[in-house]
Write a structure and sequence with these properties.
The chain is α+β, with helices and mostly antiparallel strands and about 140 residues long. It is built from two helices and four strands, in the order αββββα.
Length: about 140
Amino acid sequence: MSQSDPTDHALAAIASILDHPEPHREPEQKAAVEDKPVAPVAVEADGYSKIGPGPMTALRFKWTVRRDDDGEYYVHETIGESSAPVVTGPMPADAAIRLVDDRASEARQRFEQLRSEMAGRAAAANLVRRDSGEM
């Protein structure tokens, strides 16, 4: 029997965690009546928040819009639950909401790409093990 690379085990463990991600829920949308255009729903900017994807809370990004006493809006970006925020602003309320949405979307895309790469590597490692008779 040959010694297996610890990286293979780590990648396999991470891939198994990522095989069962938290369910992604899209907001429910009501059907619009064709003859009555529906105005966009106003979102309260202060407190608007999104959390990035990932299996571990300690590594998840969180973006939250905060309004200061002067009425200016800032986006607080944190990693995990106890990190100091990186603050971006001041900006108008709609720009702050758009920044939160954009950052969350980018994080999801990067996460899905990484997850796909890791799944591919884990599958390749399994093929190598099978070919070498380690199973």
